Here is the input.
Amino acid sequence: MPPKAAARPQAPTAGAPRLSVVGVGLMGASLAAALKAAGFVSHVRGCDENPAALRHARDHGLIDQGVSSLREAADADIVVLATPVGPLPDLLAQLKAYVRPATVITDLGSVKGPVARAAEDLGLTRCVPGHPIAGAERTGPGAARVDLFRGRTVVLTPFPGLEAAAQDLVRALWEAVGARVIVTSPDEHDRALAQTSHLPHLLAFACAEHLAQPGTGPALAPFVGTGLRDFLRIAGSDPVIWRDIFAANAAFLAPALRAYGTMLAAYGRALDEGDWAGLEARLGAAQAYHDCLMKEAGDGNR
Amino acid sequence: MPPKAAARPQAPTAGAPRLSVVGVGLMGASLAAALKAAGFVSHVRGCDENPAALRHARDHGLIDQGVSSLREAADADIVVLATPVGPLPDLLAQLKAYVRPATVITDLGSVKGPVARAAEDLGLTRCVPGHPIAGAERTGPGAARVDLFRGRTVVLTPFPGLEAAAQDLVRALWEAVGARVIVTSPDEHDRALAQTSHLPHLLAFACAEHLAQPGTGPALAPFVGTGLRDFLRIAGSDPVIWRDIFAANAAFLAPALRAYGTMLAAYGRALDEGDWAGLEARLGAAQAYHDCLMKEAGDGNR
Here is the structure.
């Protein structure tokens, strides 16, 4: 079992930066606890609208102090935005009024174009858009784990004008908690994640809704095997978080969905026409790519 | 770790039936080993075209004897057909010429209509169509496990004229290896499994083939997370086995796929029109059904 997040009595490095985490859910609380455990930060403020989340995080030593306003959160050397994707551009606009020029900002959002564009438009040249490819079925600070990011890939997506020193600090932050950092453009990230994450989530949600239809929904439980269980697992994800992600990445997700629909129609034709040789060739190609992709991905991000 | 299949020195019950398993892959070898371990059978013949599979199964004590002809396999009190779905009706027709009238036949196929119809048409009133909802990513007797069926659901799908004593024996066989037996009609089984297993497999295969397309395939590996890994896992399944299943159940799978396509088109419209409230409602309904279905399924079949 992976260790649950908990305070570890480790003295921070002298002069270590003060951290604020905005959004004390699974991701924010795990990062706060991991950075405290690594001694990378000297003092951690958590900022959340939910007093219970702040209390839990403080009582379990995941953060040092709970604050409720963005103005208070802005008083730090590093501000991590760990909220759902939707509010991120607005939060950046608000933060700009509060942060000192030296403060480095980063985020954990699953879609990077809107964040990078907002930071560039706002002239936030020390705001480093980032996305850790990590997560879990559970949500909230109660599910936080100090090792959530260990061995995971974190994608940083700089925009023109981003200060190199800020990017270096955010890279060091992620490496301190055991993550592997890669750098790409916001569009390249969003195009890839539309395929590897957002499309599969949409397909799983649609499959769960399909199974719930009259004539299919009732009485399916005895016929559920491990295949369906794993395939559908991501349909248990938070609807608001994923509405935000789908909306923020609609420009790349919609064409991916159309292309998938075309692929699915070809499978349907093979079924209707009894083209079993053609179907077998498709399944063989699919299995070969599956095995190749998973082999190449290795044990990364799990 | 679950125990791998291995010979256990357990004396069979006096007068225990002699078993033949046709197809010594993961499923057949696991069942043979589990029935030997339970002392439910006195002597186990394995029948397979692949001499290496037979040798492995015999050397590891999963079976007592390897035979290569269906005629030899038919000389038993119980014959279990553990082949892919496609050949099952033909195998039943061949078996009919060899088996003694008292011999009970059953199978492990994932589609039950073709087996039940063949048995009924052939007058094989002691042939009990069955389907254990179990499996694993790996194949072959080397992946066999004595506990593969423990806690799993096995569906028996009788047809008019099936002898009750035969069904009782097959029920006892499955209960001896720790499975839970339910009984339904072949059509009801095939309609449900089209939704809970065959459609998800087809969607995962299609997603893997989609991801392999030029412009999407290359360089996706760094962006693979646990969500995609679990969602796509069933696309690593054997193409020939699944071609057979899709072909055998096309009558129920094709309409399920069309209905899913309609659902997916609605998601696409929500994306195109920016209907985020509508999308959130869909995701909420999907998540609620996911959670409800998995709660009802409980720990069964995993």
Observations:
- Strands of chain B lie at 18-22, 43-47, 65-67, 78-81, 104-107, 127-128, 130-132, 153-156, 180-183.
- The two ends of chain B are 14 Å apart (CA to CA).
- Residues 128 and 168 of chain B are 10 Å apart (CA to CA).
- Chain B touches chain A through 92 residues (CB under 8 Å).
